[in-house]
């Protein structure tokens, strides 16, 4: 009788062990297959590991370690705790396509915030105060006089020494959101918002998928209500989609740049822009005279809203300002607009902020985006208040 009891316990133990792994194997959690693009952009000896508890880490191995070695050692040893493994991949900023339409056409250094009605919201006392915005991008120069009071966290996820004459993109994006206009010549859309900077893009304009995910999770865990992602070109998207979806599910508003390839991304998707998540806004670029600029990606299903993105002056490192063009500049216009709305109505959800921005656009029928329009934050605040008062 005792022997039978021991056999039953052994069988139950084996069943329980199998159940814990849910039929997983080192091959199923770390597949050998990859798209051709992914193979050519693999970063050697780096792996993005999604754990069953929801966390994500980037694991590095010694030079010369193969995927099979990693699978047979790390993956096998930690199989019960691992949900999925991807190779780490290069992410490269895509340069703006050349266009004869791009020209210095700004009537003032801060025409963008004025065009979307930000000044009318400032006049009501709302400037983004109390709202943290994550900027997952390149270097953000937190010593810049117009940013120094508003950049409250600045973490770097690559190991490169920054060149402030080359790595200017992140500082420019941060200034569009939150440059303090009382301390210099440009003003951000939400000049009292606080910036949580997470750098993963290097001087060369690229970075890794794993470092991007670590940067996103870092700013989220520090309290970002909005995360601005003014980059694209991520063709190997499994881990990235899981990570961004998890942030959206936490009620964080994800603002992405539609891309500068001049294509319809409904048919030629670029990621993370084309994920179409519940709390995501994907932004196209428009001009001072409300034309939809030709270099901007479009798409009635994958692109949502237009915002100024041509001739945008903002901060760059070493206390300088300069103008840049691209959907990279349009996305932080919307991030700043969302920060204004949240400072005015702190109880709003990400879904309500998104709905208010979408329902209140200035409509231009030629815009090939889901809302057919350009953001108007003053009208969005009116819409948000009406929405909440009716509930």
SSE arrangement:
Blueprint: H1 2-21, H2 26-29, H3 36-40, E1 42-51, E2 56-60, H4 67-77, E3 82-92, H5 111-115, H6 118-122, E4 132-137, E5 151-156, H7 169-178, E6 194-199, E7 206-208, H8 209-221, E8 226-229, H9 238-249, E9 253-257, E10 280-286, E11 305-308, E12 312-316, E13 320-324, H10 327-344, H11 350-359, E14 362-363, E15 373-374, H12 377-389
Parallel strand pairs: 4-6, 4-8, 5-6, 8-9, 9-10, 10-11
Antiparallel strand pairs: 1-2, 1-3, 3-7, 12-13, 14-15
Helix pairs in contact: 7-10, 8-9, 10-12, 11-12
What is the makeup of the main sheet? Answer: 7 strands, parallel
How many domains in all?
A: 2
Tally of separate helices: 12
Spans of at least 5 consecutive residues with low confidence: 1-20
Radius of gyration, taken over Cα atoms and rounded to an integer in Å = 23 Å
Average pLDDT score: 89
* Strand line-up in the sheet with most strands: 5-6-4-8-9-10-11
Structural class: alpha/beta
Report strand %. 15-25%
Number of strands: 15
Helix content: 25-40%
Q: Find the CATH superfamily of the largest domain.
A: Peptidase S8/S53 domain
- Please tell me what the overall shape is: globular
Query: What is the CATH architecture assignment of the largest domain?
Result: 3-Layer(aba) Sandwich
CATH class of the largest domain: Alpha Beta
Return the CATH topology of the largest domain. Answer: Rossmann fold
- The rounded distance between the terminal residues' Cα atoms is 66 Å
String of helices and strands: HHHEEHEHHEEHEEHEHEEEEEHHEEH
């Amino acid at each position: 009788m005792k022997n039978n009891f021991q056999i039953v316990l052994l069988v139950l133990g084996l069943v329980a062990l199998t159940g814990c792994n849910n039929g997983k194997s080192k091959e199923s959690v770390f597949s050998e297959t990859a798209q051709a693009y992914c193979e050519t952009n693999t970063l050697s000896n780096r792996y993005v590991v999604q754990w069953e508890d929801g966390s994500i880490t980037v694991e590095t191995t010694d030079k010369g370690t193969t995927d099979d070695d990693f699978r047979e050692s790390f993956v096998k040893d930690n199989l019960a705790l691992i949900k999925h493994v991807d190779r780490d991949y290069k992410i490269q900023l895509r340069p703006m396509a050349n266009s004869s339409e791009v020209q210095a056409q700004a009537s003032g250094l801060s025409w963008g915030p004025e065009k979307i009605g930000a000044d009318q919201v400032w006049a009501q006392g709302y400037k983004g105060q109390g709202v943290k915005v994550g900027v997952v991008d390149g270097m953000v120069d937190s010593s810049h006089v117009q940013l120094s009071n508003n950049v409250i966290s600045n973490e770097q996820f690559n190991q490169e020494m920054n060149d402030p004459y080359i790595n200017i993109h992140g500082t420019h994006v941060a200034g569009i959101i939150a440059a303090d206009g009382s301390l210099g010549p440009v003003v951000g859309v939400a000049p009292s918002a606080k910036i949580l900077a997470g750098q993963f893009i290097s001087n060369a304009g690229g970075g890794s998928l794993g470092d991007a995910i670590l940067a996103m999770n870092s700013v989220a865990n520090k309290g970002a209500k909005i995360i601005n992602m003014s980059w694209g070109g991520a063709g190997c998207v499994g881990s990235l989609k899981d990570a961004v979806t998890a942030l959206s599910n936490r009620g964080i508003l994800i603002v992405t740049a539609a891309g500068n390839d001049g294509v319809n991304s409904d048919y030629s998707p670029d990621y993370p822009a084309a994920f179409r998540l519940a709390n995501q806004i994907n932004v196209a670029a428009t001009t001072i005279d409300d034309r939809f600029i030709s270099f901007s990606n479009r798409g009635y299903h994958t692109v949502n809203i237009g915002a100024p993105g041509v001739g945008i002056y903002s901060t760059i490192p070493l206390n300088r300002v300069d103008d840049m063009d691209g959907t990279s500049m349009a996305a932080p216009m919307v991030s700043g607009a969302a920060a204004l709305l949240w400072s005015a109505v702190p109880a709003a959800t990400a879904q309500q902020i998104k709905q208010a921005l979408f329902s209140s656009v200035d409509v231009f029928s030629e815009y090939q985006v889901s809302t057919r329009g350009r953001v108007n934050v003053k009208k969005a605040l009116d819409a948000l208040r009406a929405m909440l008062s009716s509930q």
